[in-house]
Amino acid sequence: MSPTQPRQILDMNAFNPSRDRAGENPLLERHHHNFGAASVLFYRDPIEMVSASGCWMEAADGTRYLDFYNNVPSVGHCHPRVVEAVSCQLARLNIHTRYLNQCIETYAERLKATLSRTLDNLVMTCTGSEANDLALRIAALKSGNRGVIVTENAYHGNTEAVTAISPSALKRAPLSPHVVTVPAPSVDAFGSDITTGFTTAVKQAIETLRKRGYGLAAFICDAIFSSDGIHADPTDLLKPSIAAVHAAGGIYIADEVQPGFGRTGDAYWGFERHTVTPDIVTMGKPMGNGFPLAGLAVNADALACFCEEYGYFNTFGGNPVACAAGQAVLEVMEEEQLQANAQHIGAHLGTRLEALRHYDRRITAVRGAGLFIGIDLCHSGETATPSPELTSAVINGLRERRVLIGAAGRFGNTLKIRPPLCLDEQEADFFVEALSDTLASLSVKSR
């Protein structure tokens, strides 16, 4: 049995001011004084970034880093089309949404065209947290229940309501009794029949919530289970679980903040890989390529029922500047064929990583779809002994080789790959060579 303990998501490879001084850095001292305990910085020696373009970021010392972590600038850092769209709209008009505006309606119609016709209304917000918070409120009213099912290491945001359904964000606070977790859909949890095992776990969670008196309001997940360590398959996974959720009176919320907008390559939305239709789709981050833009799509009747009981207005959600950014993102994705690129480059990257896995047994798994890939690292080469220590060493070794990457998974031993969708083959190879070199150097150090 592994002695490894579950890891809190924000602690993975984070700067710790009580442990890491990072030399005499006046900017770091200013940052710590201004933001205190709520500050989250990467690396024991945090990086001061000054510019970015495409898949690359540049630090104040002139070092250029390949960004293999950040799904926010999905069409590439500082994409000129997005910059131009935002700048032009900001120079023309920026208001809240209580006035009519062509830009807002054009974007809404373009976005809705990517979704099922049953999801005929949008509510625009600024963050995925706000979108998930509102989705939970709609689910509670529609179902008449409060209980929520999530996976064991899920992350869905940082309002009070969504922090409660984000086990990976909890440090000492216990899980609320209205929330029940199920294991991520993996061979480790369910053996060879993952679909049956996961469905059984969801049904047991429904029964637990019934016995506790909460009933089931919603099952929420992102369809690639990113914070749980990236579990893309099997693609028949969700359908029987959602049928059980609907039978219990609950609704299915697809959190597409991470797997959405073409990242998985074979589908525009992560849930489409599973041939299911959500009751609510929440989205954010990559929508505006760095400009704050998020929202949810929902059936008009469900939204009308909610609005009969509660008012909802978001001052900045879906403003013309945000919608201009969102429209530019959709246009760039289509014109530059970025979903197809994610599939093509993701396949190339997966092939090279599998070859490296066969060479280095510390890589125990490579999973994912498109440009969303997880690499499990275990010091002994055994899946029963996950090694967040090795993963942290690899992350810092990659930083030395000019690659930025993060971690995920219950034990923090999964490298989380999600670069901008414009990644090319040469950049993918740059990463694989850097990873290979890092692992080789760590082998030498451990002897």
Automatic annotation (TrEMBL):
One term of GO molecular function: transaminase activity
Record flagged with keyword Transferase: yes
Pfam families in the record: Aminotran_3 (PF00202)
Family annotation (InterPro entries): Aminotrans_3, Aminotrans_3_PPA_site, PyrdxlP-dep_Trfase, PyrdxlP-dep_Trfase_major, PyrdxlP-dep_Trfase_small
Keyword Transferase: yes
Cofactor(s) it depends on: pyridoxal 5'-phosphate
Keywords associated with the record: Aminotransferase, Pyridoxal phosphate, Transferase
Family named by the database record: Belongs to the class-III pyridoxal-phosphate-dependent aminotransferase family.
Protein name (record): Aspartate aminotransferase family protein
Species of the source: Kushneria aurantia
